[in-house]
Design brief:
Elements (H helix, E strand, L loop, with lengths): L6 E4 L4 H6 L2 E10 L4 E4 L4 E17 L3 E6 L2 E5 L4 E19 L3 H6 L9 E3 L7 H13 L3 H21 L9 H10 L7 H7 L4 H12 L3 H19 L4 H7 L5 H12 L3 H8 L9 H4 L9
Antiparallel strand pairs: 1-2, 2-7, 3-7, 4-5, 4-6, 4-7, 6-8
Helix pairs in contact: 3-4, 5-7, 6-7, 9-10
Length: 297
């Protein structure tokens, strides 16, 4: 892949685009040594495709995490997660997209990284990435429904190309794969033994694999997955708290709200006001995110 030309464009897709499709809120490319990001949180999802170079990704809250990045790889950014990343002293080639939308769940279920695998190593460079980012550059720079659709299609093409470049054949005993499998079944109410049986491991083997990959017990990991999914639903949908609680595995909305506050430090309704890009309870996006606070990736 040729080194990218440095550029960045941002967009504000219409409500229908944000609600029903994967919407592109910005894209860009940079090459060489760039200042790192520190302690930043985004209101949308994001991906950073590193085609060449090395560096590191870090999370500060709600968990402490630091992991190396070596291209080709993708850094997956979740809304509301305080994070940072940057290259080593030699710089790298990065290509980024800001996006949101419930359809992303289908890509996660197919094997793309997400909240609990923020750095995903790829088997090979992403095919046709240059062409896709040329499309994203043109679409994100334009205005109107057609441009928004074009940016949405290009973003989904990029996600599919990343999926094609990932490893579909990792063994179930691989820590990252076990994490993915547990993540997919996290909303089901199951004892640890049943979760272990579902991935072909003993309860002890599952506990060891999850702890090695995440530093958490299986139960704590399941709770984090549920809370992360609830955060996405709060930011990206108009479902009420009871509906969201049920979707992530809790029949008792009041218990879910207490757990959410305990894990994130804020109530679900407050999180929605802070992170939602659609109008919520009379609060406009411009009230929460001024032009000077536009997210930079």
């Amino acid at each position: 892949m040729t080194p990218p030309t440095s550029w960045s464009h941002y967009a504000s897709p219409r409500h229908a685009m944000r609600r029903f499709l994967i919407s592109c809120h910005g894209a860009g490319e940079q090459a060489g040594l760039q200042p790192p990001f520190r302690r930043r949180a985004l209101p949308t999802r994001g991906l950073v495709y590193i085609s060449e170079g090395r560096g590191a990704y870090e999370e500060y809250e709600p968990r402490s995490l630091q992991t190396p990045v070596e291209g080709p790889a993708v850094i997956w950014l979740a809304p509301g997660v305080l994070h940072g990343y940057g290259s080593d002293a030699r710089g790298w080639s990065e290509h980024w997209v800001l996006f949101e939308g419930e359809p992303f769940a289908a890509f996660e279920a197919s094997g793309l990284g997400g909240r609990h695998r923020p750095v995903q190593k790829l088997l090979r460079p992403v095919e046709h990435a240059d062409a896709i980012f040329r499309e994203l550059r043109e679409a994100a720079a334009a205005v109107g429904p057609r441009a928004e659709l074009a940016a949405s299609v290009a973003t989904q093409r990029l996600l599919l190309a990343i999926l094609d470049s990932s490893d579909p054949g990792e063994g179930a005993t691989d820590g990252a794969t076990v994490v993915d499998l547990v993540t997919r079944g996290a909303t089901r109410t199951l004892p640890v033994a049943a979760r272990a049986d579902a991935v072909g491991l003993t309860a002890r083997e599952l506990q060891d694999a999850v702890r090695a990959a995440t530093g958490l017990t299986v139960n704590d990991f399941v709770i984090e997955v549920r809370i992360a999914r609830a955060q996405s639903l709060l930011a990206e949908t108009r479902l009420d708290v009871g509906q969201i609680a049920a979707q992530v595995g809790y029949d008792d909305a009041a218990y879910f709200s207490r757990l959410f506050r305990r894990r994130t430090g804020t109530a679900p309704s407050v999180f929605r006001q802070q992170q939602a890009r659609t109008p919520v309870d009379g609060i406009r996006p411009s009230d929460a995110w001024g032009a000077a606070d536009s997210p930079m990736i």
